[in-house]
Amino acid sequence: AALYGLDRWGDPYFSVSDRGHVMVQPRGDRGGSLDLMELVQELQGRDLSLPLLIRFDDILEDRLERLHGAFERAIAQYGYAGRYQGVFPVKCNQQRHVVEELVSSGRRWHFGLEAGSKAELLIALSLIDDPEALLICNGYKDQRYIETAILARRLGRQPVVVVEQADEVERIISASHELGAAPLIGIRAKLSARSTGRWGSSVGERAKFGLGIPELLATVEALRAADLLGELRLLHFHVGSQINDIAVLKDALQEAGQIYGELTKLGAPMGYLDVGGGLGIDYDGSRTASSASTNYSLQNYANDVVATVKECCEPHGIPVPTLVSESGRALASHFSVLVFDVLGAGSLPGAVPTPLESEALILRNLRDTYAAITAPEASVEALQEAWNDALKFKHDALATFRLGYLSLPERGLAEQLTWACCQAIAERIKGLPAATVIPEELRALPAALASTYYANLSVFRSAPDTWAIDQLFPVLPIHRLDEKPEALGSFADLTCDSDGKIARFIDPARSSGQGQEKPLLELHNLRPGEPYWIGLFLGGAYQEVMGNLHNLFGSTNAVHIRLKANGGYQLDHVVRGDTNAEVLEVMEHNPELLLERLRVASEAAIGQGSLGISDARRLMAHLETSLRQTTYLQG
Ligand code: PLP
Predict the structure, then answer these.
(1) Residue 53: strand, helix, or coil
(2) Is the ipTM, as predicted for this complex, more than 0.95?
(3) Secondary structure class of 347 (helix, strand, coil)
(4) Element holding 185 (H helix, E strand)
(5) Cα 540 to averaged position of ligand 1 atoms, centre (Å)
(6) Locate the Arginine decarboxylase helical bundle domain: which residues (predicted)?
C-alpha cells in the first residue's frame, strides 16, 4: 500500500487486505468493507465485462456527511450565527443515478443543485422538490432560461438566477416585467484576488465570468431602478477548481466578504454568500500545495470560510449570511473506481541471444562488454565504462547496417545484446550497498527497460484529464499487493493514438512538495492465464462527461453498489456501456445498413468462390455480435 501511497490518499475509503487485495470501506470509518477483487469477479459473473466503473453510493453519502459535518463543527466553534447550505454543481457528474443519489441523500440538509446550462437546469428543476433547497443558475442565460427560472418559483422551487455577464440584468428585468414576477437574484463577482493552480484564471479582471466592481454597481442600480433590488439575495464567486493553496481562498473570502457587506449597505436584502467550488482533493496524498494536492483539510476549509465571513460581517453589524458552496470535485471524486484489465505487456529483450556460427566483430565486442559487466569483480566505474562501450557498439552496428555491411539478423542480435548489457547493469546496481554512489546515467537504466502494459481502456473516454491537463490519478493493481512487484511499467490504452497512455504516477517517496509524480509504476509480471486488474481511483468528478469517443470507444459498463446493513452488498443499478452499434449511430452511421453492405459483399465473394458459405456465416455472426457488445476487448 505504501508503494502506491494508498495509505495517504485512500484514507478512509481504501486499504489493502492481508491477501493483498484492495479493500473498499464505503462508509469510511463507520464499518463495513468489500474486497474489490472479489466484487469485480462477482460482477464479471453477471456478465459485466471490464473495463468497469464501480460507483459506491455510500461513499457519495459519506462525503456529503463529511462536508456538512465540517461546516457544522466550524459554525459551532466560531459561534457563527448562520448556517451552511450546499449545492452540487451538476456539470461535475450529470449521470442520473449520481444526481438522484445526491439529492435523496442530501434532503436532510436541504442540499441543492447548481446548473450551468438549460439541460442542467431541467435536471435540477425536476429533481429538486424541496422548497428550501437552493437551485443556483449559473452560466450564460437567454430569455427562455430566465423565464423558466422565474416560473419555476411558482412550482415552489428556489432558483437563484446569478448574473454572470453585465447584459444579463436587462434580460432579468424584461422577463420579470413580462411575467409580472421576479426570480431570486444573485451576482457573481470577478474578484481581484490572485489564484494559483490549474484553474487560476477563473478569477481576476480577465476571468470569463463575473462582474467587475463598476459592472456590479451598475447592476445594483439597474435592479433598483426596476424595483427588483429586493430580490438580490446572493453574492457568488468562484476562484477555480482544485484550490491547492488555502491562502488563495482566504484572500478571496476577505474580498467577497467586504463586497457582500457593501451590497447590504446599498440596500439589497442579501442573505446568501456562495463561495463556489474549488474545495480540492489530495490526489497524491502529499498534503502540499502541489497541483495534485491541497495544503488544507476539509475542516480547515470550512473553518476558514466560516471564520473569515464572520470577521467581515461582524465589525459592520451586518447579519452573517447563509453560507453556500458549490463543491463538486470534493463530493464526487472518491465514489467511483475504474477497474480495467491488462491485455499483455511488452518489454525489451533482456536475455543474451545464442551466438551465430561466425559473428561480426561488432557482435563479439558486445558479447565481451556483457562479460565485463557480469564479471564478479566489476566496479561501478567498470559498469559505467561498459555501458558507454555498449552504446557506442550499438551505434556502430546501426551505421554498419545502414551502409549494408550488417544483415538484419545481425542488427537484431546487436540490439538484443545491448539490452542484455542494460539489464545486467540494472541487476548489478540493485545488489550494490545503499551508500554506493551510482552515476545518474546508470541509475536511469531500469527505467529504460520498463515494460508497456496494454490496458483494455481508452484514456480519452475514461480518464480524459490525464491526457488533457496532466491530471494525476492514483493507479494501482487491485490484487497481488502482498507480492513485491518485479517490473516497472506504464500503460498504453486501446486507441491508435500515442497520447493514449497513462505514464504519470504518484511517487509517495518524493516529499519535495513540488508535484509528487513519476513516469513509471511498480507492477507485477503477468502470469499466463491469470488476470491482472488495475484500479484508477478518485476519478468520480468530471471524467465521465469530459470523456470522448476517440477511435469510437464508448462508455464502459457501470454499476452502483450499496453496502447492506447485515454485510455484503446490493447491486442497485447497472448502466450498460455503449455498444458498437450505439457509437456508430452517434456518428450517423446505420449499423443495419453497414451489415447489409457487408452481406452483399460476402454474397459476391461466395459467387466468385473466394469465400465459403460457412466462413461467410462466421464473418456475419462476428459482425452482428460485435454490434451488440461494448466497444472494448472481450476477455
Ligand atoms: N461552481 C462553478 C461556477 C464552477 O465553475 C465550478 C467548476 O469549476 C464548480 C462550481 C465546481 O468546482 P469544484 O468541482 O472544484 O468544486
Answers:
(1) strand
(2) yes
(3) coil
(4) strand 184-188
(5) 14
(6) 357-433
* Residue 479 domain-assigned (yes or no): yes
**Helix, strand, coil proportions of the chain in percent (round to 5)?**
45, 15, 40
What stretches of 314-353 show up as alpha helix (H) in DSSP? 329-332
Domain span including residue 183: 54-334
Local confidence band at 348 (pLDDT 50, 70, 90 cut-offs): confident
What share of the chain in percent tops pLDDT 90? 88
Task: Assess contact for 202 and 150: CB atoms under 8 A.
Answer: no
DSSP 525-583: PP-TT---EEEE-S--SSHHHH---GGG--PPEEEEEEE-TTSSEEEEEEEPPPBHHHH
174 & 88 share domain: yes
Domain total of the chain: 4
Question: How far, in Å, from the CA of 564 to the mean position of ligand 1?
Answer: 33
Strands 501-502 and 487-492 come out as antiparallel
pLDDT at 349: 79
Residue 383: CATH number of its domain: 1.20.58
Domain end among 446, 477, 495: 446
* Each residue's pLDDT tens digit, 6-21: 999 999 999 999 999 9
Mean pLDDT of 40-68: 97
| Ligand 1: nearest atom to the Cα of 236 | 3
Ligand 1 pocket residue status of 328, Cβ below 6 Å: yes
**Helix runs in 375-456, H state only:** 380-402, 408-430, 440-443, 445-448
Is 421 known to be catalytic? no
* Residues 292 and 387 both lie in one domain: no
574 assigned ligand-binding residue: no
Give, in order, the Cα–Cα distances in Å from 200 to each of 248, 255, 333. 10, 16, 20
Q: Give per-residue pLDDT as tens, 91-106.
A: 999 999 999 999 999 9
Look at residue 164 and tell me if it is in a domain. yes
Residue 298 resides in a domain: yes
Question: Residue 524: which CATH number?
Answer: 2.40.37.10
- Same domain as 61, residue 116: yes
141: CATH: 3.20.20.10
Cβ atoms of 321 and 270 within 8 Å: the answer is yes
| Closest ligand 1 atom to 280 CA | 15
Task: Indicate the pTM of the whole model.
Answer: 0.93
279 is annotated as contributing to ligand binding: yes
Q: Is 251 in the pocket of ligand 1 (CB under 6 A)?
A: no
Q: Is 515 helix (H, G, I), strand (E, B) or coil?
A: coil
- pLDDT at residue number 194: 66
On whether both 370 and 325 belong to a single domain, the answer is no
Pick the residue whose CA is nearest to atom 6 on ligand 1: 277
Q: Are residues 239 and 136 in the same domain?
A: yes
Does the residue 403 lie in any domain?
yes
